[in-house]
Design goal:
The structure holds 2 protein chains of 2 kinds. Chain A is α/β, with parallel strands linked by helices. In chain A, strands 14-17-18-13-12-19-20 form a 7-stranded mixed β-sheet, sandwiched between helices. In chain A, strands 9-8-7-10-11-21 form a 6-stranded mixed β-sheet, sandwiched between helices. In chain B, the strands form 7 sheets. A 7-stranded mixed β-sheet of chain B has the order 14-17-18-13-12-20-21, sandwiched between helices. Chain B has a 6-stranded mixed β-sheet with strand order 9-8-7-10-11-23, sandwiched between helices. In chain B, strands 5-6-24 form a 3-stranded antiparallel β-sheet, with no helix packed on it. Classes of the chains: A alpha/beta, B alpha/beta.
């Protein structure tokens, strides 16, 4: 274990932007209220940021509405929007070091990871959609008569985006990128735990030349600002990433207000299925990555590891050995793999689930404790002998807790893997292509990794079956969330062909 | 004139090639049958719920009456599905999806079966058309020439789609590769309205079946008969038990049970915006099932002064009087540019007076009764609002005949944007004519509605047509035509007119989930 706190040797980034970004300017909230954002390493306040409430949402929507109805953004060509977005990506990379440090400060994820993953992937996603902006194509429809039709894929309008705290920047760009490419205007609310990089990126949007009102960023809470967004009568679309419980409230608010379409990326309890024929060391590495990445704070976390009985004991032993090598410590330290959980509430929730695991008779084979006397550090934790009906096998923990379950047959793995309200991701570890195909077809989930996990790319759609959500983000599918389809029909006179 | 034929007064969609005979006496047809209504050339054969491949009574044994809109008299009593019947249907559909052959056979095989289904619908077209007219009141001419052929077209379109469900291959940014599988979403619940009972049935059932889903469909309580008949045809076709379950019943009970069901994976609804809201709310509160909603409209038809006025009048007439105005896409706000306004109004009234209202079973009748007493009274109430608010009633405006739900073909001129008849969906044979000056004004006023379903543009100028088509925030724009449809044209709304698209390749997506499968890529010579 590395030191949990090392302020003396770490140069922390300066916080430059703490106000609401509305209509191209940083402004105080109407009420003047602010709230603290906390450093998860120390539990101390980093800074205070402006708190958006309903009246600030109204102002942001007004700006976004004007920008959509009368501004240049939806009226410039896709090519021009793409050029501005490429510039935006350049600026993100130029400020990559600072953004990575700010992300780690606010979120607690290892700086190594913020630098190697969050920042480059954010830039990749913007560039992917920058290149999509001039490739929004409709269809030509020949129709079954003397008519012809075309479809126009048009921007849906003013969009409300609500993002979580686990990947603040990646989530920001995975929603902002396609919305901007489509020609929409945006009101985005970062999570109250991690407002800082979103506000920084708002400033970069301005520098990139994105016109005022096109991108509005509001720091605030779900119950107030988030609720105002999802029930707003003048927001044409809402996209939310977060818990299934809140996703339900968002969709309900959309239904009760103006029936805005919703995209929801929600919770998961994703199975990783390790077959007898797998290379056990490789399987252990994949399973380790699947659950301990980002301190287990990943909607796609492989939180149920099903291991076939022939290799079960060896797998458990090696999984423990691997977890022991996980470097927990101050996320600013090079080489640290595992920082604190995001906040006190999550920290306590994870510890509570560890108690449930013990109570229900799972075998705690590694970890299980909090670390240090301040900050929200929790050890990588492994339970073996987990049964399907235990709470730790059913509910999303969102922490560094691996549950290992034993199975005999492939049929059993399919049935138990699918026995959940969720359907977000799954992993399959086998060398047998027929087993891999059978499992990948049988599992009712949106993303299946074979002999890998969490490998992503901007062109890969991501989203859930069942109660893990509605719609897909990333890739060409992600663009559809921000487009309406208009069909235009004319009579066809004297065509030589139909 | 060729173009005239495509928008002939009686032509809905493009299936009519010959205009039907016109009767100059508005009420001739209706009054001539004062001694009694035409006896429908059809008998009712199926009145029970269709669950797991069998016609069964409802668990409670309850039934409800379906009425003939020509007379208000009972056609038949049909079994009434409630929560417990929905549960049985879902159980059957779940078993058929999880273990049955339908999602496990190839798309090609499903397509063959769907084509056979279409053959049977075609074989029984005359009987289905008569049953549709009996239960719904739409002119038999229209049932035959529009509803039935279009049902068959939609079914065949999706039969041909079943073996063309393709994913993407993704090269990824790194030594991995991925592909997407478009898989059936599972058990789907479908709730359809009464205005095009058969067409709505197939618009929802066909893409769902093509994808490999299993279905619970609830017909409208006003029009349960043709859906049950089609259930029998599905059985004869060889669609396996449990794959298609057809329930007659009410929205408050059966519809609510479906939209809040924890074991239905998707819900698709066509109907009012008000009920669409309840459906989405129930979906949110239960298992977060995705929703497709096709809801209300208040679609503008914009007639520019360069238009051929006769042609424009024909288009406007068709746009709002088709199916007694009971069309979600009805062109219920006709904006006419000021220089041709007076002439347009005069000719629209002349044209409306030629509309033959009468017993829908009679040949040559253009307009039958409204669907039921509630709708009938609602339309009359809106006509009253129009008069009270100062719109000028030029023709029609009252009910017709001593029985049934007939309403005269009605036109208001001098309608203002803030009048109720210009804002709310009336769903009846009421044309509102509004005057405008500039194209900017037409765009602004055309868009000034909570709805965004359809729009019509009548002009010869391609620049004006393009500008208006781009500016109107609606899902469907017709230029120099209206209601022309085809199975490959997506249909759906902007704003509060709904969520998602039906028909065409877009319609298939409502019933598919996207799964992305990723593997490492070892030593590929190219990335």
């Amino acid at each position: 274990m590395a030191p949990l706190s090392s302020e003396s040797s770490t140069v922390l980034p300066q916080v430059k932007y703490t106000k609401l970004f509305i209509n191209g300017e940083f402004v105080d909230s109407v009420s003047g209220k602010t709230f603290e954002t906390i450093d998860p390493r120390t539990e101390e306040a980093i800074t205070r940021v402006s708190e958006a409430q309903k009246e600030d949402v109204d102002l942001a929507v007004k700006a976004a509405r004007a920008a959509f109805d009368h501004g240049p953004w939806p009226r410039m060509s896709g090519y021009q929007r793409g050029c501005i977005m490429y510039k935006y990506a350049e600026l993100v990379l130029q400020h990559g070091e600072e953004l990575a440090a700010l992300e780690t400060l606010d979120n607690g994820k290892p700086l190594d990871m913020a630098q190697a993953l969050d920042i480059p992937y954010s830039a990749e996603v913007i560039r992917y959609y920058a290149g999509s902006a001039d490739k929004i194509h409709g269809q030509t429809l020949k129709m079954s008569g003397q008519y012809q039709g075309i479809t126009l894929h048009e921007p849906i309008g003013v969009v409300g985006l609500i993002i979580p705290w686990n990947y603040p920047m990646v989530m920001f760009f995975s929603k902002v990128g396609p919305a901007l490419a489509a020609g929409c205007t945006i009101v985005i609310k970062p999570a109250e735990q991690t407002p800082l990089t979103a506000l920084y990126c708002a400033q970069l949007a301005k520098e990139a030349g994105i016109p005022p009102g096109v991108l509005n960023a509001l720091s605030g809470f779900g119950e107030t600002a988030g609720a105002a967004i999802s029930s707003h009568m003048d927001i044409d679309k809402v996209s939310f990433t977060g818990s299934t419980q809140v996703g339900r409230l968002i969709m309900e608010a959309a239904a009760k207000s103006n029936l805005k379409p919703v995209t929801l990326e929600l919770g998961g309890k994703s199975p990783v299925i390790v077959m007898d024929d797998a290379d056990v060391d490789k399987a252990v590495n994949i399973a380790h990555l699947a659950i301990f990445n980002n301190m287990g704070q990943v909607c796609l976390a492989g939180s149920r590891v099903f291991v076939q009985e022939g290799i079960y004991d060896e797998f458990v032993k090696k999984a423990v050995a691997t977890a022991k090598q996980q470097v927990v410590g101050d996320p600013f330290q090079p080489g640290v793999q595992h920082g604190p959980q995001i906040d006190k509430m999550q920290y306590e929730k994870v510890l509570e689930y560890i108690q449930y695991g013990k109570r229900d008779g799972a075998n705690l084979v590694f970890g299980g404790n909090s670390l240090g006397d301040k900050g929200f550090y929790i050890e990588p934790t492994i339970f073996s002998d987990v049964e399907d009906d235990m709470q730790i096998a059913k509910e999303e923990i969102f922490g560094p807790v691996m549950s290992i379950l034993k199975f005999k047959t492939i049929e059993e793995a399919i049935e138990r893997g699918n026995k959940t309200i969720y359907g977000l991701g799954a992993g399959i570890i086998t060398n047998d292509i027929n087993i891999a195909n059978r499992l990948s077809r049988s599992l009712r989930v949106g993303t299946v990794w074979i002999n890998s996990y969490l490998a992503v790319s901007a062109d890969i759609p991501l989203g859930g079956y069942k109660m893990s959500g509605i719609g897909r983000e990333y890739g060409s599918y992600g663009l559809d969330n921000y487009l309406q389809v208009k069909c235009v029909i004319t009579p066809l006179q004297d065509s030589p062909w139909l | 004139m060729v173009r005239r034929a495509t928008v002939s007064p009686t032509a809905t969609f493009h299936y009519h090639s010959e205009p039907l005979p016109q009767n100059n006496s508005e009420m001739a047809s209706l009054s001539s049958q004062s001694n009694g209504t035409v006896r429908p050339p059809v008998t009712v054969k199926y009145t029970k719920l269709f669950i797991n491949g069998e016609f069964v009574d409802s668990v409670s044994g309850k039934k409800f009456e379906t009425l003939d809109p020509r007379t208000g008299e009972v056609i038949a009593s049909v079994s009434e599905a409630r929560q417990e019947d929905v549960d049985l249907a879902v159980k059957a559909a779940r078993a058929a999806f999880d273990h049955g052959p339908w999602p496990r056979m190839s798309g090609y095989e499903r397509g063959r079966i769907l084509h056979k289904f279409a053959d049977l619908v075609l074989q029984h077209s005359e009987e289905l058309a008569a049953l549709e007219t009996f239960d719904n009141g739409k002119p038999l001419d229209m049932s035959r020439m529009m509803d039935l052929p279009y049902c068959i077209e939609v079914l065949r379109y999706y039969a041909g789609s079943a073996d063309k469900i393709h994913g993407l291959t993704l090269k990824m940014n790194g030594p991995y590769q991925a592909h997407t599988l478009h898989e059936p979403i599972g058990v789907v619940g479908q709730i359809i309205p009464w205005n095009f009972p058969l067409l709505m049935f197939f618009a929802k059932v066909a893409p769902a079946l093509a994808c490999g889903c299993t279905v619970i469909i609830k017909s409208a309580e006003q029009t349960p008969l043709t859906a049950l008949y089609c259930a029998q045809l599905a059985r004869e076709t060889g669609i396996p038990p449990g794959v298609l379950n057809v329930l007659s019943g009410f929205g408050e009970t059966a519809g609510a049970a479906m939209s809040s069901h924890m074991d239905i994976d998707k819900i698709s609804f066509t109907g009012s915006t008000q009920v669409g809201r309840l459906i989405m709310e129930a979906a949110a509160k239960s298992n977060l099932k995705p929703v497709t909603l096709e809801l209300g409209g208040k679609s503008p038809l914009i007639v520019m002064e360069d238009a051929d006025i006769d042609e424009a009048v024909d288009i406007a007439h068709l746009a709002v009087f088709t199916n007694m105005g009971q069309v979600c896409l009805a062109g219920s706000r006709v904006f006419v540019q000021e220089n041709i306004y007076d002439e347009f109004v005069k000719k629209a009234v002349e044209r409306a007076k030629k509309q033959v209202v009468g017993d829908p079973f009679k040949a040559g009748v253009h307009q039958g009764p409204q669907i039921d007493k509630m709708q009938f009274e609602k339309v009359l109430k809106y006509i009253q609002y129009g008069k009270e608010e100062g719109a000028k009633l030029l023709t029609g405006g009252s009910c017709l005949g001593g029985q049934g739900f007939y309403i005269g073909t009605t036109i208001f001129s001098d309608v203002q944007d803030d009048m109720k008849i210009a804002q709310d969906e009336i769903f009846g044979p009421v044309m509102s004519i509004l005057k405008f000056k500039t194209i900017d004004e037409a765009i602004e006023r055309g868009n000034k509605t909570i709805y965004g379903l359809g729009a019509g543009i009548v002009t010869k100028n391609v620049d004006v047509a393009n500008r208006l088509a781009r500016s109107l925030r609606v899902g469907m724009v017709w230029i120099n035509c209206y209601l022309a449809g085809s199975a490959d044209c997506p249909l759906g709304g902007y704003k509060m007119s709904g969520i998602g698209r039906e028909y065409g390749s877009n319609g298939l997506e409502n019933y598919l989930q996207v799964k992305c499968v990723i593997t490492p890529l070892q030593e590929s010579p190219w990335l």
